[in-house]
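Contributing new complexes? Match this layout with S-adenosylmethionine.
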Amino acid sequence: MIKRIRIIGIGMGDPDHVTGEAARALGTVDVFLVADKGETTADLVAARQAVCDALIPSDHAYRVVEVTDPRRSPDADRDPAAYGRRVRDWHAERVDAYADVIEMLPAEETTVGFLVWGDPALYDSTIRVVDALVERWAARGVTVDHDVIAGISAPQLLAARHRIPLNRIGAPVHITTGRRLVDEFDPGLGDVVVMLDGHLACSALVNGYPDLELCWGAYLGSADELLVRGRLADVIDEVRRVRAEARERHGWIMDTYLLRQPADAPTTSHVGPAFTPFPLSIEWEPLGDGVVALRPLDAADWEVVRAEHNNEESLRWGFDGEALTEAAARQKAAEAPREWRRGRVARFVIVDVASGERAGVLMVMRMGPPGVGLVGYGVVPGFRGRGFTTRALRLVAAWAFTHTDLERLELGHKVGNVASGRAAERAGFIAEGRLSGRLPNPDGTRSDEVTYALIRPSRALTESHRVE
Ligand SMILES: C[S@@+](CC[C@H](N)C(=O)[O-])C[C@H]1O[C@@H](n2cnc3c(N)ncnc32)[C@H](O)[C@@H]1O
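Output block (do not edit by hand):
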């Protein structure tokens, strides 16, 4: 009867790659359960058997039971949600298949082992399957102990074979799959390890990032190990050819690769426009006029972000009438300091000085030509009608024209939202025009937008501004 399940990482199939801890664990298992995935991975089943033969003491009796893996249909053209659902169903079927086998074990077989290729923590569902089994038995009052023993994973062996670290100094490393690579790739990710890639997805990155270094490896740890390394644009054809030939020879292929940033590449992303970071001096020089104060918004301010959005007035003037969820409000607030540092958006909290309460939010977003900032704002219902918006707009304009490179602030409101326009005009913004059907309404119609601008004072009266 089952008492213990051991999930044992066996590396890439070479007994020399099995850790001492894993080797000792192998010798404690009565029954190994191995997924039978059909003909294509017969070589891998043989490699697992070789590990057992080499490392399990000859006087220890054990059995290997093959459990037929439920079939999983090809997933190439499925959308991510359907893919996720299908994988979850497939896991449930696997749990059932293993439970059926384990519950039939004779009384003297108490320790079951799962041999996991590489490391159980990386792109392997055994831990999830065993968690589900253990929970299922716990619900029936049966306690089954389980542990996980680490193994050498494909990325580790890849790095060792190429004699490289996986990351540049102090930079991150991102591990992903072939099906996600192109959507996710960004130089800001650092070096990228790609696994489970049936189609060499990095081919699609050659034009955009020809200078990436590709460190590719297949059948790592086996006698047929293959390695190719070089500048992505230079070696991609070779990898394609070597890969196709090897797949033809073996009938299957397992490969992993690392896309390395060139050694002198900056560690931050340069995707999208580069901005001058907004100044941080604001943190120790609070902006205020005695009635309201502005300070940079951060993660702790998520409730005012939500309150400013989720009220009848704001939803009516908004674009889609959708309330902001707590998760979305938390995320928006949490991202604010990073956006500030990137120089894209400066988000502020409007604080009521008398009570110290958060009265609203205000942002300046760099948009359009250089030197132009788009201003957006909103005060929560309890603080409306007290001139807070006008005060906050005056403060932010003074800040923008003193501490940043912004030359022109713009804002706009739906044509019927006269209160918003009045607050802007009192703060010195000048109405400039009306843009037809620019802003969507919750009911699917569109409204005209009235636009305003405020120019940096020293330039407001120069000839060039007066001419047009
Ligand atoms: C289901 S994941 C299992 C990963 C495994 N748990 C590990 O720690 O490496 C299978 C993927 O691992 C990589 N992989 C596994 N064995 C490999 C090998 N011998 N050589 C190269 N890549 C391998 C391939 O990217 C393959 O698509």
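Reviewers usually confirm one structural detail per submission. For this one: The longest strand covers residues 430-440.
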